[in-house]
Amino acid sequence: RKEVEQDPGPFNVPEGATVAFNCTYSNSASQSFFWYRQDCRKEPKLLMSVYSSGNEDGRFTAQLNRASQYISLLIRDSKLSDSATYLCVVNLLGMLTFGGGTRLMVKP
Amino acid sequence: DTAVSQTPKYLVTQMGNDKSIKCEQNLGHDTMYWYKQDSKKFLKIMFSYNNKELIINETVPNRFSPKSPDKAHLNLHINSLELGDSAVYFCASSHRLAGGRGELFFGEGSRLTVL
Fold first, then answer.
1. Which residues of A touch B103 (CB under 8 A)?
2. I need a labelling partner for B38 at 20 to 30 A (CA). Which of A38, A102, B89, B96 fits?
3. How many angstroms separate the CA of residue A41 from the nearest CA in chain B?
4. DSSP states of chain A as a string?
5. How far is CA A95 from CA A60, A62, B75, B86, in A?
């Protein structure tokens, strides 16, 4: 079992749609969680942290379920510029493990 | 001003050659990393290094070696290149404790093609 698993997609959605990505992680001792965004042929960049109580940053909402070892990212009112690969990231003892990413394509 | 810079951005070479990729960060971070992103887009850590310790991912062949002349630089040297080494190699940096806050700053990547 991979340490961090994501559906690779692609998720093809129209502008304005709401889309959700899920991620599961295997090590219950994992300490903190993040979503990164990677544009095509670019480097990954931190999108947001994921807190146990859930957190929101504009159109983006992240949630964590430690019991199920499950993380989610919800994007509301999708924009063309949201098209990218979204990487779920898990921290264990200061080492970050990346999921394979979920590719999102937002169409006009 | 580029925060984390890698050179070269593209590298095409023959099997069996030895090559190096250089990385420099001007963020004042004390920890640097090398990640490998393969054709399936999985980003896997190879090394984590600060001025006190080197942490090696045990799956990394010993043909790969990090070299750090100072805390702002972490170069990657690869001996006897193999076809399977073809990938994009990303350098990254963070404050030591920022690993826990998840903020890694990545370079733009170096795309290595082994023929």
1. 46
2. B96
3. 9
4. --SEEE----EEEETT--EEEEEEES-TT--EEEEEEE-TTS-EEEEEEE-TT-EEETTEEEEEETTTTEEEEEE-S--GGG-EEEEEEEEETTEEEE---EEEEEE-
5. 25, 21, 19, 24
